[in-house]
Amino acid sequence: MKYKLIVMDMDGTLTNSQKEISPLTKYALIEAQKLGAKLVLASGRPTPGLYKEAKELKMDVYGGYLLSYNGAYICDYPGHNELYSCTIPQKYVLPIINNAKALNLNIMVHKGENVVADREDTYKLQYEASACNMGIEIVKDLRDFMDYEPNKFLISAPEAYLKEHFDDFRIPFGDMLSIYTSAPFYIEVVPNGIDKGASLEKIANELHVSSNEIIAFGDEMNDLTMLQYAGHGVAMGNAVKPIKLIADEITASNDEDGIALSLFRAFPEIKQ
């Protein structure tokens, strides 16, 4: 078996436009696990937002890993044993919130089983909670609520507005934080140096797996380092152009069973 780890982004990659794992993709991933491969769900989502899909893919039977908050937290599954956690230093919490508010960008944070915001009309709040299978908590002011160091902040706005103000938000923090887009309407803010590729390397080292034994799937800019680290990086057909340019393979879209079709080529032992 050539690949020992199968690593997947979630939204826009593993799940289709209806936020579901298609039957064919589910079949291919379960069959690959039967052959001995381990799955890694690598997402900007909070850790609880990955439980439903992990169970659906029978990772509770075969074992695997959850790489959440864009790599700021890693645990095994189903044991939930923490392998790695990195949080945003408290000194940056208020500047992040204040900068977002000054630019009229929406801001969310995850705590426990909830997505937390201080406006009920926060852009994509309902979407985020639904996608992550989490509840919603509305607080008076995030600046008063944030008495802890989070793994990630999520900034949202309509696509055109977000694109226009992305640099305005990012530049003041220089290289103090890692800031990038995970969807046309999302900016992810995580600790400096945190990305999916660096965290995938930690899992590989833990399992003594070489990068050449990893196949990874993604569609957005926060997947770039993960696809670069993997021995075989696969861009979804719906991926943004920079991801397609660095990928070793471009498969079909997330609505066309792109992961399954690629796995059938990578694992010829799987019966189609």
CATH architecture annotation of the largest domain: 3-Layer(aba) Sandwich
Query: Mean pLDDT across all residues, rounded?
Result: 96
**CATH overall fold name of the largest domain:** Rossmann fold
CATH class of the largest domain: Alpha Beta
Strand order of the largest sheet: 5-4-3-2-1-12-13-14
Q: Give me the number of helical elements.
A: 11
Radius of gyration: 18 Å
Strand content: 15-25%
- Distance from N terminus to C terminus (CA atoms, Å) equals 17 Å
What is the count of distinct domains? 2
Judged by helices, strands and strand pairing, the structural class is alpha/beta
**Total strand segments:** 14
The CATH homologous superfamily of the largest domain is called HAD superfamily/HAD-like
Largest sheet: 8 strands, mixed
Helix content: 25-40%
Low-pLDDT segments, ≥5 res = none
Using the alpha-carbon principal axes, give the shape: globular
Order of helices and strands: EHEHHEEEHEEHEHEHEEHEHEHEH
